[in-house]
Amino acid sequence: MCKELDILRPQRKLKVKHPKRLARNQEITVSNRLCEIDIKYGYIAGENRFFYIMPIIDVLDRIIVNYHIGLNCTANDAARTVQAAMFKRQVYGTDDLIIRSDNGPQFISHHFGDSCIIFGIEHERIPCRTPNKNAHIESFNAILEEECLSRYEFQSYAEAYDTVSQFIKNYNSVRLHSSLKYHTPNEAYQLLQQKALNIKPVRV
After folding, report:
1. Confidence of residue 130 (pLDDT cuts 50, 70, 90)
2. pLDDT tens digits for 147-178?
3. pTM above 0.70, yes or no
4. Cα distance between residue 175 and residue 82, in whole Å
5. Is the dihedral of CA 166, 172, 173, 177 positive or negative?
6. Which domains does the chain have, with CATH numbers?
7. What does DSSP say about strands 202-203 and 98-101: parallel, antiparallel, or unpaired?
8. Where are the beta strands (DSSP E) in 4-141?
9. Are strands 40-44 and 49-58 parallel, antiparallel or unpaired?
10. DSSP string for residues in 25-44
């Protein structure tokens, strides 16, 4: 019996490749420093199925920098959406950007973690049951639900895609924000880049 026990070896502890980085309190004073990402569901009545919207918001200027709309939403979709957002903002490879998410399966996957390392961005996740830590994207998703998704009965995926895309375009270019001194997100971003707009730092 003792000999049999001797051949057993203690199991090695698996090293976590992507340790969880919890969202930390900080003050954001510039664009392209902290973005939040989340997933929202919509319903297509005419096809009796759901679709996914995954927007990325810059917490300072409030622009939806990029988004994914699809019948599926995978870790690969999340990685591609983040990468495209970085190219749009010309911050690819600068090592300055933080992306904040919840603990959805797309965001805790190794693929998404690997992609963030390759992109040179820091990925932090909010603690469970603390949506206030992702307040800006949660606020946008609430607006999206109230002013778009709940007002339309989509008959096709194409209709849903076009409607949501146009809503996001209008959000960026038409909607005024009191926190941006009643500029649109697009206007605020341009003014901030020119150092022609002074707004309060965002505490997250």
Report:
1. confident
2. 999 999 999 999 999 999 999 999 999 999 99
3. yes
4. 23
5. positive
6. 17-203 (3.30.420.10)
7. unpaired
8. 27-28, 34-37, 40-44, 49-58, 64-70, 98-101, 122-125
9. antiparallel
10. --EE-STTSEEEE--EEEEE
